Amino acid sequence: MKMKVPKVLIMLFACIAIITVSSYPAMAGASAKYVLPILSLSESVSSISELEVALVDARTPTPSYERKDLLIVDGDYYQLQAGKAAKKDQRIHDNICSAALAGVPVVFVGPGYEELYADLGVKPQTVEVREGDRFVEMPCAIHAVKIMPRNNGSGQPYIAKYTIAGDYKQLTKNTFSYVRNWVNRTNSISEPAPIPLAQADREELGLARTSSGGSAYWNEFGSDEWNSGDAYSPKGQFNVQRRYLRLMNDNSYTYGWYSCIVQLQTVPGYVAYGGNGWRASHHYADMPLDEIYSSQTLIDYDPTTTSGTGTMGYSIGVTAGQSGASVSASFSESYSITDVKVHDYSNFYYDQVKWGHNINESRDAGKYTYYAKPGYTFRTSNSMPGLVYGYYQVCWAKKIWWWWQQYWQPEFRLADYMYLAGSS
Fold first, then answer.
1. Is residue 306 helix, strand or coil?
2. Which of 8, 32, 289, 394 sits a CA distance of 20 to 30 A from 259?
3. Domain range holding 320?
């Protein structure tokens, strides 16, 4: 049986939901206590109110999920029915874990995600916002994770994490669009290259990575994202995506080398909220590598201070004979700097990489979506955890008569464990 879902039901994300491109039949006689709404998403759906729902029994074995599916969990319901404190129904918990380990994206709305993440062996992101001289936890409506297992079962999986700022009790239909876009991005990620089994065995034993006989290369192994959602409305939206790459076949028993591409996207109010007068003006990204662990050392980064038109390309990586590396490997990236000035505030002495992008608010770069992709390479000890810090801030501008009035959003801090060498 299918029925149209009232908006208020969807807004509350009642119980647990699965979004998929195919529909599931209702199960007769499902107990109301264990009923889960399954949302069917078609290509023509443009708002949450257009979704259709079918019912299944949560006590049954996990359905045959596909990676294009999306499992949405109401944290309040989960804590009440399946959380360790409740000790009521382990089957709901087991079904969610089974789906996540099969590669299905799991999206937690509200609380409860920490417990499930711990059972999955995934450490959640920490998102904090500056208030005066201290940082306090930032309210987040969504915490999501997607685990992409290796084809041959060896090595660590690709783990993508995602958070959306805001109060989960005040979700809008836009929140659904943000989640759907994240799923589409994760679906576009190619299957991660498998780590050679002998090398995977060494990592499991806590030993240094070594060469499997092949050439050194960079392998992308994870990502995390933060989305402002509608927290900055009507000024715009600010999105931060960090992609992590590991140097494979590095021939080192002492160090591990990693690179991070910091993808910064400004979506000004002119684009995000129906053509209003708000534009993007600045954004900053600051990564102090040794803030927590002094073993993290800045090796390379790009771009440096520059301005111009067109597309800027760069290449970063490691060079044999420098900073303890015995192999050479690099990769390239590029992005537009038309009507943008890049200010480099990095400092090798402090192992800090920091960029400011000064966007011309009166030109298209400020009026429309702008996407910057600077990157850096760092070295870490094989015996130290892999906590990665980043501080980010965005500034909007609106024209008042003949001058631009600027508005700086509070700086926020994003911390994440990305399973670097030696991390648990």
1. strand
2. 394
3. 232-424
